[in-house]
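Shape is hard to put into words, and the shape of a protein is harder than most. The fold becomes a row of whole numbers, each drawn from a learned catalogue of backbone shapes. The outcome of that step, for a single protein, is printed below.
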Amino acid sequence: MRVLFASLASVGHTYPLIPLAVAVRAAGHEVHFAAGGEVHAPLAANGLRPFRPADSFYEIYAEDLAPELERLRPDLVVHGWGLPGAAIAAARAGIPGIWHGFGRMVPPGIGLELPMAVAPDQPHFDICPPSLQDRDFLDKGKRIPLRPVPFSPPGPWPVRKSGKLVYLTLGTAFGTAELLTAAVRALATVDAQVVVATGRVAPDQLGDVPADVTVRAWVPQAELLPHADLVVHHGGSGTTLGALAAGVPQLLLPQGADQFANAEAVSAAGSGITGTTGAIAEDARKLLAPKENPYREAARLIQAEIATMPSPEEIAQRLPEFVP
């Protein structure tokens, strides 16, 4: 089979698709990946043949993808929730398409068109564990469960853990120097090593930090999460699911987009706390409590749920089933 993957050109939208794309390629299928150039490096490093349709940089419209579908004639198009244009182009070309989620079904009003409004009969690879997924989507969506596998390009990160490890990130789109600085100052009062990924904020904007705080613009998050005792973050879907897959409690500081819905779901499941800037240190101590920690227990229950979901390798072996 020839399979075309497509996503918005951002970490949060592209990285969730990479584990399945890699598994599909490893299963012997021909894989191509349509996305803006911003994410080509990790795609190329994994042999996924990235290309930029037309003049696309972030979004891909149906008109951008149409000539590429004619050129490649894929047997299947797998596209992220943020690309309604890909669903439209595949339908027009008579090529089967499958949505690929990045977390909970997106709530209305965050700037993304709801997938069911564009192609209501099209199935979805759903990487959100059912216990956290939107109830309406569970009841009505055509879901193919797929285990969320955290992805980040490999690289070194500062391993010097002798006690607790707290990982702090506000993602690549919403972080500010003010909020990161406030979080660092609060977490410095907690008895733990703190690793900070600043994303779009330059590390030097945080000024001087305590000795037990390590600041980097980027860290290989997928490698770091299994070592963390607490993740303090913005509530982005990738970090939320990555922490859950590692069984790590979360302190969520949502800033926008789908982050408030993610924070609400994690808090309702008991595996984290939706916090405020003024209570970061207090909440972190609760989440790091060594004994009878209900947050850690709840996180590990969801970790076990995620482990039962079909892996990308299992879905890749079943791929011909999804092509009429």
Observations:
- The domain at 2-148+309-322 is CATH 3.40.50.2000 (Rossmann fold).
- The first strand starts at residue 2 and ends at 6.
